[in-house]
Design goal:
Blueprint lengths: L4 H13 L11 H11 L4 H14 L3 H5 L3 H8 L6 H16 L8 H4 L7 H12 L8 H10 L9 H14 L5 H14 L18 H4 L16 E11 L4 E2 L2 E2 L10 E2 L2 E4 L5 H11 L4 E6 L5 E4 L3 E12 L7 E2 L10 H9 L3
Parallel strand pairs: 1-8
Antiparallel strand pairs: 1-5, 2-9, 3-4, 6-8, 7-8
Helix pairs in contact: 1-11, 2-3, 2-8, 8-11, 9-11
């Protein structure tokens, strides 16, 4: 079956413009899967050094599976969406236990791995096994919505179904891997979210969004609910030996299994007097001084919530129970909000 003119043009553009990326120079499904997990909700320029760190530390899926979760989370630190890292580790263990250490390359078995959905399974199976599976990521949605002038919301059930079928109809069944790489790269470099270079686009004579002047209106996406506001007060203890205290976040919710300073979540921003009242009631360590590190709360935006974080420095009179030396904090995986504070705070 001959590829569609759309696919032919996209692949021709790809041959001339594709970036030289390490996961494009291998057929190893482990490395390709790793790159896809890292690049979910992460730009290539940010994800590339993380990919290299993971490959250096865990060259094979067995190395990753046999690592401690804390090692994996420390390497992931700064990428956000930490459930991806936990799922990454769990999936590697599944490859060992359920696939005898051989990384699957077919769509159905890839879907069995923790954290692997339709997109990742389609990408890995088409790249490694040339299965005719069409990928749908943000770049692909954008290219298709603009080229075909589709105003269905990409985050709606009807929209998802429509775009999936369209992507399958356009797929080059003889070269599905190259086709998928090409359309994703086209969206990343040419048909960009803002200010796409339509004048120099090879599809500009047939793109319906250009024809109808709707490039900046597509794709359509339903608005998300307003972000929840939360107020985090971190109690940073320091004893005479420059030891501190941290705790592991347990249970579901943000930053599961990461470490943090003792936390008091208040209903609103608070002042020093309110912190002193809280400490006198809830903290047994006797402190000789309390100071506020940041005058205004540090705003940390997550996908569905905005955190307003204040760091309170407690100078403790006696040695802390279960102390952690300040210089050893980098051994523990922490959210970037806390690692930025640690870098800024000078003992």
């Amino acid at each position: 079956m001959r590829p569609t003119p759309f696919s032919t043009q996209i692949q021709s553009w790809y041959d001339k413009n594709k970036r030289d990326l390490p996961w494009r120079n291998t057929n190893d499904p482990y490395k390709i899967w790793l790159s896809e997990i890292i690049l979910q909700q992460t730009r290539v320029v940010q994800g590339l050094p993380y990919y290299q760190k993971f490959i250096d530390s865990f060259p094979t899926v067995s190395d990753l599976a046999n690592a401690q979760e804390q090692e994996v989370l420390v390497l992931w630190q700064g990428l956000g969406y930490y459930s991806r890292a936990r799922n990454l580790h769990a999936a590697a263990k599944m490859v060992l236990s359920e696939f005898d250490g051989v990384f699957p390359t077919d769509y159905q078995n890839l879907k069995k791995l923790k954290g692997v959905g339709d997109y990742t399974a389609s990408a890995v199976s088409s790249f490694c096994a040339q299965e005719p599976q069409a990928v749908l990521d943000g770049n692909v949605f954008r290219v298709l919505a603009r080229y075909f002038n589709i105003d269905l919301a990409i985050n709606s059930t009807p929209g998802q179904k429509y775009f999936k079928q369209l992507a399958l109809d356009l797929l080059d069944k003889d070269q599905p891997g190259k086709h998928n790489q090409a359309i994703m790269e086209f969206g990343a470099l040419q048909c960009t979210p803002k200010s796409p270079d339509c004048n120099n686009c090879p599809l500009n004579t047939s793109c319906l969004a250009i024809k109808h002047g709707k490039t900046d209106q597509l794709p359509v996406k339903h608005k998300a609910k307003p972000a929840r506001m939360r107020f985090f007060n971190y109690l940073v203890k320091l004893d005479p030996d420059n030891n501190t205290q941290i705790q592991k976040r347990e249970g579901p919710g943000i930053w599961q299994n990461l470490y943090e300073f003792p936390l008091w979540e208040s209903d609103a921003a608070i002042d020093t007097h309110e912190v002193e009242t809280y400490l006198n009631t809830h903290v047994t360590d006797k402190f000789v001084n309390l100071s506020r590190f940041n005058d205004k709360p540090k705003i940390h935006k997550l996908s569905h919530q905005h955190l307003y974080a204040t760091f309170w420095i407690l100078e403790i009179e006696k040695p802390i129970t279960d102390p952690i030396a300040w210089q050893d904090l980098d051994k523990y995986p922490m959210p970037v909000l806390l690692t930025d504070f640690i870098k800024a705070f000078k003992i």
